[in-house]
Specification:
By secondary structure, the chain is of the alpha/beta class. It is built from 13 helices and 15 strands.
């Protein structure tokens, strides 16, 4: 028998408690034990700020899931979605559509030379899923090498390629091999310098390829800058060394830019800071700040040509959805004309870098500060010598202190990820740094 439901209009005034009650009664949340949920209510937002139904505002230094790069409710993107809705709300992917073509053109304009086509998906996970499929079909090989400290999405091959705990209950896809990547602060290779870390991580990868059999490896899949795993900037020479190994053995290099792309690191793509060109690039999140679900694969000419006469056996009902495409066009145009990527780079260089370093000087619990652009992490430790991570209970108290002071944080393991929108202002950064300072001082 169906449950009796009380129906209210979308615009009807509600309270936070009413929203939570509705959510708890009807919504199944991801990565959660359902009985323990107490979700934060978000009713609206603008720029780097969000608010709830009871009038409380927060600085959004999580960018939700590190994706609202253009900020909340950017008027240009909202208007583009409205105009597209008036013209054509949906269209099958087999047809040509002007807005979809413009979106692909805008993305390719910022991609490395030699990239040829865009395959649109619904998000980052299925972007990685289809990139893996392309690599396997292009090479005729099976295995995919990825890193332990990584996250690539929650679909079959993407979650198997993921390196963190979330893959363990979901390993149903075959042919996945993991390696350790560079992470000098907690080096797996007894390295003491960035150069040693890069060289030894590359040797570890080289030996893994040799032991697995180079002729069996279709792709190496890496986040250019691992995000959820800790914002781990690759040391000089590492990505170039991976590219050389791929070239030596005919392996496809896939760079996952789902989180790091479109201004997050202060570049259009994080790979722009390195002398490397991948064969496939996956994207989502920042390309339109999640205003409409979308992702995709940027495909090199060589791999695109594989499917000129051969059918690519993959597709999605909403591939290149016109509402998503319109939001991409408007987002990229706004990024260009409003110098949003440049703002992210300047905020990182002039405000976040020195401000977070000053926090570390005042708070011994901060073991390391690392990042670029609007993509930073504070790694919190009980002791700087042993690097023993702080406890989950400590992180819970930090999160509560930050929320109580009006900052919405991104917390992962023993880290605070400082990841505001790319449109964040110096004044908002100063306010946030003060809140971090107070919260760290309050938790012992």
């Amino acid at each position: 028998m169906a449950r009796t439901r009380t129906r209210t209009a979308l615009a009807a005034p509600v309270t936070n408690s009413e929203v939570v009650d509705l959510d708890r009664a009807n919504v199944f949340h991801s990565w959660s034990a359902q009985g323990a949920l107490n979700p934060l209510v978000i009713a609206g937002g603008s720029g780097s700020t969000v608010w709830d139904h009871d009038g409380r505002t927060y600085l959004d230094f999580s960018s939700q899931l590190v994706n609202t790069n253009i900020g909340h409710q950017h008027p240009r993107v909202i208007e583009a979605i409205k105009q597209q809705a008036d013209a054509l709300v949906t269209v099958a992917p087999a047809h040509a559509n002007h807005t979809r073509g413009l979106a692909a053109e805008r993305i390719l304009a910022h991609a490395p030379a030699g990239m040829d086509k865009i395959f649109f998906t619904n998000g980052g996970a299925d972007a990685n899923e289809n990139a893996i499929r392309m690599a396997r079909l292009h090479t005729g090989r099976d295995k995919v090498i990825s890193r332990y400290r990584s996250y690539h999405g929650n679909t079959g091959a993407a979650i198997a390629a993921t390196g963190d705990w979330r893959r363990i209950h979901n390993e149903y896809s075959r042919g996945h091999v993991h390696v350790f990547g560079p992470y000098l602060y907690r080096s797996e290779f007894w390295a003491e310098t960035p150069q040693q870390e890069a060289e030894r991580a590359l040797q570890h990868l080289r030996r893994t390829i040799e032991c697995e059999g180079p002729q069996s490896v279709a792709a190496i899949l890496l986040e250019t800058v691992p995000g959820t795993a800790g914002i781990l900037l690759p040391p000089p020479g590492y990505l170039e060394g991976v590219r050389a190994l791929c070239d030596q053995h005919g392996i496809v290099l896939i760079l996952d830019e789902v989180m790091a792309g479109f201004g997050r690191t202060g570049d259009w793509f994080a790979l722009d800071a390195y002398n490397v060109r991948p064969d496939l690039i996956t994207f989502a999140k920042g390309v339109n700040s999640g205003y409409v679900p979308v992702g995709g694969v940027i495909i090199s000419k060589d791999i695109s040509a594989t499917f000129d006469e051969r059918v690519f056996p993959g597709g999605l009902t909403y591939s290149g959805h016109p509402l998503a495409a319109a939001s991409i066009v408007a987002s990229i145009d706004a990024f260009e004309e409003e110098n949003i990527v440049e703002n992210a780079e300047r905020i990182g260089r002039d405000h976040l870098a020195p401000g977070l370093a000053a926090l570390a000087a005042r708070h011994p619990v901060i073991g390391e500060v690392r990042g670029r652009g609007v993509f930073w992490a504070l790694e919190l430790v009980q002791d700087r010598q042993t690097k023993q991570p702080v406890t989950p209970a400590y992180m819970g108290r930090i999160k509560a202190e930050l929320l109580n002071r009006g900052l919405l944080p991104f917390i992962a393991d023993n880290r605070i990820h400082v990841v505001p929108p790319a449109v964040v202002t110096p004044e908002e950064v100063r306010k946030a740094l003060g809140i971090y300072d107070e919260a760290l001082a309050a938790v012992k």
